[in-house]
Amino acid sequence: MWARLRGVVVRIRNWWHDEAEDRGLLDELETHISLLEDRYRRRGHTDVEARRLARHALGGTTQLREAHRDARGLPFADAVAQDVRHAARVLRKAPGFTAFVVLIVALGIGMSTTIFSVVHAVLLRPLPFDDPVRLVWIENDLGPTESDRTIQVGHLIDLQRTSSTFSAVAGYEALKRGGDHTLVGTDRAVRVTTVGVTRDFFPVLGVRPSIGRLFTAAECEWNAPHVVLLSHALWQRDFDAAPDVVGRSLTVDGAPSTVVGVLPASFDFSIFEPGARVDLFVPYPLSAETNRRGNTMYLVGRLAPGTTLPAARAAVQALASRSAAGTGRNRFLPRLTTLRDHVSGTYRLPLAVLAGGVALVLGLVCANVSSLLLVRATARRREMAVRASLGAGRGRLIRQALTEPLLLSAAGGALGTSLATLGTRLLARLEALQLPLRHTVDVDPTVLTFALLSTVAVGLGAGVLPALRITSSARCPDLREGARGMSDDRRTLATRHVLMAGEIALACILLVGAGLLTRSFARVLAIDLGFEPRDAIALRVDPGLGYSDAERTRQLMYFDELLGHVRAVGDVEAAGLTDSLPLGHNRVWSVTAAGRVPQQEATPNAYVHVVSEAYFRSMGIPLLRGRDFTTADDRAGARVIIVNETLARGLWPDGQALHHTAIVGGIAREVIGVARDVRLVTPERSAGPEMYLPVRQEPDYSAMYLVVRGNGSTSDMPAVVRQAVTRVDASPPLSDVRFMQDVVDEALSPRRLVVVLFAGFGGFALALACLGVYGVVSYSITWRSREFGIRMALGASARRLTRAVAWQTLRLAATGLTVGLAGAWCLAYVMRGLLFGVTSTDPVTFGTVIVLLAGVAVGATFLPARRISRIDPAVTLRDGAS
C-alpha cells in the first residue's frame, strides 16, 4: 500500500514538474550525444557525420523524450491545455451554438449572482459594527405606527441605570422627516436631515469618527451649546472633504453649531431606517424636557458578557412592568430582537423566495445546455470511437467531453459576472428601493466566489450526462460506415425526454410563483388608498420659527401668504397644508368620546394630522359627511375635529359622529366632518382610526407639507409651485418636490422588485422550456426520419405521424406539468406571506400556467413536426438500401 501511495505522490509531482524534468532529460541527452560524437570523430568521421551517427545510435531525442513522458504519464497541465485547445477549436467551428449557450449561461449566472449579492449584503454579511452579534434592538410592541413602536426617554434612563444584562444602552430620535432643517455654512444654504442620538449611540455600535471626536457628556445636556457630527456623504458633497472641517461654525435652523467630527464612510444610517439619508447627527439629551415629548426613541443595546438574549428580554420586561406602575409614563411593552433580525427580518422571506428562484433558474440552464450538448454528443460519437480505438481510456474521454461545457460555462460565467456587476451598481443607486444596506450591495470576493462555484456547477451539471453518453457509446462498431447505434440513440433520446420534462417542471414552478406575485401586485395596485395621488405634488416648507405665541402667529401669516400665492396660479385646483403625508411618517394620539370613562388598555389611539383648509381637496380625500375646515376655525373659535370612518365607528357605535364631542389631549372638540379612510402605513394594511386637527388651533407642528393639486398635467407644476413659494421668501432652500404618485410607488418598491425579478425568472424559464421542447422534437424527427419514411411507404399519412409525435410530446409535457405543479404548490405555500388578495392555491394562476405551458409544448412541436410531411419515402428507402 505504501508503495502505491508513493507512486501516486510521485505521479502528482511529475504532473506539475514536467518542465523541470524535461530540462534535466535534455541536458542528460546532450551529454550522451557529446560523448558519442567524440567517439565517432576519433574514428575519422566529420563533425556533421559524428553528430548524425550519435543521434541515430540513441534512436532520436524526440522519441526518447516522448517515451520518458509516457513512462511517467502525460503531465496534468499539458493534458488540460490540450483539452482546452481542442474544445476551443471545436467551439469555433460552431459559432452560433457557442454564442447561444454562452448567452444562456451568462443570463443565468448574471441573475443568480445579482440576487446573491443582495442576499449576502442583507442577510449573510456581518453588520459593519464591532461584535455585531451582541447588539440588540429594543422597541415598543404596541402597534404598527412609530408612536406605537418608539419608547419614552424615561424608560431608556431606567434601562441605563438598573439593567445589568446590557453593558450599554443608547438610542436615537425617531419621527424625523427628510430635509426638515436648513444648513448654512457652505457655499449655499441646503436642506438637510438631522437625527438626534444619545451620547452612547456610536460607542455602543463601535463606530469611530474618521475625523474629530464624538459627543461629550456636557454636550448632551439640555440647553448645552449646539454641536453636530457630519455624515461622510455630506462632508464630501458640501464641504469638499475638507480636513479642517472640525471646529467650523455652521448655522442649523438659525442656531449656531460647531462641527466636532465626521463619521466614517462605512456607517450607513439606512441600516436602521431603509431609504433614509441622514446628513447631520446632534446630541439628544435625556432630560425631563425630552421625556415630556412622549414616545420618541428607538433603542440599541449591547449585551453584557455572558448574557443571552432571552435573559435580557426577561429582565427588560420585568423592568418595564415596574417602571410603568405609578410613574405616569406611556406604556412600554418591550420587544427585543437581535439587530441583525431587525435589519433583515422583513426582507428574509422575499429574499429567500428570490434565492429559490435563482436555484430553479440555474437548474433550467443546466437542463437546457445539457440537452443541446446531447445533440452534439451524438454527432461526435465517431470521433470518440476513433480516440478509444487509439488507446484513450474512458476517463480520458470523459475529461475531454467535460472540457467543452466547462469552457462554455466559463465564458458565460465571465459575461454573467460582468452583467451582475452592472446590476448591483444599479441596485445600489436605486433611491426608490427601500432596502437596508443597499449601498453595500456589490460584487465582493464572496460574491465572486459564488459566481465561480455557480459557473463550475453549471458546467459540470450540464456536461455530465452528455459526457457519460458520448463515452459509453465510443466503441469500435461506431467506426463502420452506416453504423447507427440504435440502442444508444434510443437511450440518448430517453435522456433528452427526461431533461425536457424537467425543464417544463422547473418552468411551471417559476411561472406559478411569478403569476401569484403578479396577481398579488395587481390587487395591491387596485386598492382604494382613500386619496388620489394623481395630479398631486407635495413640497416641504419650513418658515424656521419657534413655538411661542408670537412666532406661531408669524408662522400662520407665512402659511396664509404662501397658500394665497399658490392658489393664484392658473393650473392649481386646490392647495393645502399637512404635517404628515400618507404612506410616510405618522404618529398616534389617544382619543375618547365625551362621557365615556377611558381605561388605559381600552383607550383608542388614532393617527393624528394637523391640516389646513382645502387639504382634503388637495389630497383627493372625500368628505363623506359634514364640512371642511375654514379660516374661521382658529383659536378664537370653537375647537373642532374631523374623524375618519373607522374612528367614527370606534367611538360611536352607530357611526354617526357629526356634532358629537371627542376628547383629544384633555380638550373637547366638536366633530364637524367624517372623511374617508386612508391607508397610511402601507397600501396592504387596512386603514386605522384617524383624526384631523385644524392648523390654526393646534400648536404642535413646525414645518409642513404643501400639497398642491393641478387641474391637468403635473409636469410643469413643480416649477410653478417653486416660483410661487419663492415669492413669499426666497432665502430658505426648498426641499425637492415630490409627486404623490412617486410616494405610492416608493411604498410599493419592495414588492415591485420581487415581482419584476420573479417575472423575469418566469419569462426566462418559459423561453428555455420552449427551446427544450423544440430541440427534443427536432432531434427525434431527425433521428427517426428513416422510420417515418418506411411507415409512409407502407401507407401511413404524414398527418397521422405528426399527430403521433405531438401526442408523445404532450405526454412528456403532462409528466413535467404534474411534477411542476406539485413543486409549485410547495413554493406557493412557502411564499404565502408575500401574497395579498390571492390564495396560495389560486386556480386562475395555476390554470393559466397549465394552458400556457401546454400551448408552448404544442407550438414548439408544430414547426419541427412539419418536416415529416417533406420526407420522401422513395429517397429514404433508396438511401437505406445503398
Cα-atom radius of gyration: 38 Å
Determine the oligomeric state from the structure: single chain
Number of helices: 26
Low-confidence segments, given as residue ranges, are: 15-19, 476-488
Global morphology: globular
Specify the biggest β-sheet.
Answer: 8 strands, mixed
* Distance between the ends: 57 Å
Structural class: alpha+beta
What share of the residues does DSSP label as strand, in percent?
5-15%
Give the tally of β-strands: 24
Mean pLDDT: 79
Q: Considering DSSP H and I runs of 4 or more, what fraction of the residues is helical? A: 40-55%
Structure description:
With 882 residues, this protein is of the alpha+beta class. Helices cover 54% and strands 14% of the residues. Strands 4, 5, 6, 7, 8, 9, 10 and 11 form an 8-stranded mixed beta sheet that branches. Strands 16-17-22-19-21-20 form a 6-stranded mixed beta barrel. A hairpin with a 2-residue loop joins strand 20 and strand 21. Helix 6 packs antiparallel against helix 13, helix 15 runs antiparallel to helix 16 and helix 17 crosses helix 24. The radius of gyration is 38 Å and the shape is globular. The two termini are 57 Å apart.
Write a compact overview of the structure shown.
By secondary structure, this protein is of the alpha+beta class.
Task: Note the topology.
Layout: H1 2-16, H2 18-42, H3 47-58, H4 61-71, H5 76-92, H6 95-124, E1 135-140, H7 146-149, E2 151-152, H8 153-162, E3 166-173, E4 181-184, E5 190-192, E6 194-197, H9 201-205, E7 211-212, E8 227-230, H10 232-239, E9 249-252, E10 255-262, E11 280-283, H11 288-291, E12 295-303, H12 309-324, E13 334-338, H13 339-379, H14 381-389, H15 394-429, H16 445-472, H17 486-525, E14 536-541, H18 549-567, E15 572-578, E16 588-593, E17 605-611, H19 615-619, E18 623-626, E19 640-644, H20 645-651, E20 661-664, E21 667-675, E22 690-694, E23 704-710, H21 717-728, E24 738-739, H22 740-783, H23 785-793, H24 798-830, H25 843-865, H26 873-881
Parallel strand pairs: 6-11, 8-10, 17-22, 19-21
Antiparallel strand pairs: 1-12, 1-13, 2-12, 3-12, 4-5, 4-9, 7-10, 8-11, 9-10, 14-23, 14-24, 15-23, 16-17, 16-20, 18-21, 19-22, 20-21
